[in-house]
Predict the structure.
Amino acid sequence: MEFKALVELCESLEKTTKRNVMIGVVADFLRGLSEEEIEPAISMMLGRAFPKYDPRTLDVSWATLSEIIRRLSGVDWATFNTAFRSTGDVGAATQIVFERRTPHKQSLLFEKPLTILEVRRILEHIAELKGQGSREKKERLVETLLSRATPLEAKYLVKIIIGEMRTGFQEGLMEAAVSRAFSIPLKDVQMASMLTGDIGEVAYLCKKHGKEGILNLGFKVFRPVKPMLAQMATGLGEVFEEHGGRTALEYKLDGARIQIHMLNGDVRIFSRRLTDVTKSLPDIVSLVRGEIKSKGVILEGEVIAIGDDGKPMPFQHLMRRFKRIHEIDRVTKEIPVELYLFDVLYVDGKSMIKTPYIERRNRLKEIAGNIPLTRQIITGDLNEAEAFLKSAIDEGHEGLMAKRLDSPYTPGVRGKHWFKIKPVLSHLDLVIVAAEYGYGRRHNWLSDYYLAARDGDSFTIIGKTFKGLTDDEIAEMTERLRSIAIREEGNKVIVLPKIVVEVAYNEIQKSPRYESGMTLRFARIVRIRDDKTLEEADTIETVRKIYESQFERKAKSSYESET
Ligand code: AMP
């Protein structure tokens, strides 16, 4: 199948918001694909070069890509900026400048149309290039790919390379489309998608074997599973109410979540975003290999960095361990980490996800060897719970997790089975969409950040802050922002939405300054959340809800103080 058919489909998705229509056209399209095409096509439609569990990455920076777009289109960069301003999307801007290419350049281009499989092969080739001289070679391949693309194809190639599709067609809808395409109940498709970790592979199995292909799937060791997520609780009172008066409370450690897979002594570790981080954590690998009393397991735990005083170090230190590719031995010594296990999803050929929490925890204790579990109590007593929360905070941790005793493990689901309890409620995960150079000492640094909430497929600004980061972090952030800069407007640099930050604030106020009509009061960045994806950033609906609940709270407290 030609790549053109795929991009035309994406284009039609972009133009409709009707879920049912979208699902219908994608289902028809999927039916027309061959077995080999189906996974690559699905990955690309979801804005990925490869399946989700696949460790390969393209490693093509926006700086490189934008240079190629500039070279190929031959237009001056101001034209790109205008195109970007009118569309708000780098893919669409690329299409516009490609349409303005000189006719001479265009005529050279379309000898042979690109096919879906050919695009995949070129992307594989780009990902495989490593080491010295690979940057130039990658650049050449991207250039060849884009030079063969029509303007519309270029729009989507750029989106795939930067990993942002924005057609509004997310994984959940893709599951529905696969279900419809192959007449298989949605719940079976969803279950298979959760187990294999990739809807593209599920579609392939459905195409090849029909329903039988996905019915007997089990967990696969070394295939990461979406983590179960927690909802923020308003307080311990709510937790007891929702969990039927009794719950398990665990320390919420301020570290990084890892999923550990082990089979016959081979260990692989995945981050919360399901990237393979095994190489960054050789100490954890040998710890697990030495302690875990089982041949095949999938475990979850939190890794924290420990300072000389025995207290947890700030999260940024730990992230240095995770980002490390060189000199791992030195950094392993410099930033010692500790692992605390908190769940088990699979043991020796058996899935544990339907087993109640309390039994999973007991099983975990049996197999953990000398690896500690997160500190835990089971209680129905509010005073005891409050004392436990206080001790967690006093020991330098973030707060508590409350886990319903009879709850299954629900991969990828954020529900009321798990609550997080933090003493400060006013935190949001937001995305940096622009930054300004500072003043005085900071005049060379991008130190004032525009913070945006997710708004459908785009981002809406709700505040700005220059507070929270250290000088070193600002310098590093400046580098990162420059590498994803799209254009400059005086002192301000507009960037690709890539970086998620956790922001603390005092209040959400009404404000005419931003289109959202809201702004954060006293916002400050608490940490850079490289462990979170853009999809995990908070939405504008959440912000609006909090804004509205502030009035309810204020009304309630003034009501309570009056009565
Ligand atoms: P958040 O990232 O704020 O949504 O909070 C959930 C995160 O808390 C999880 O993804 C884990 O990384 C972390 N966490 C820390 N301690 C625990 C625990 N005892 N159980 C589960 N998650 C934990």
Notes: The chain has three domains: 47-162, 229-421, 427-549.
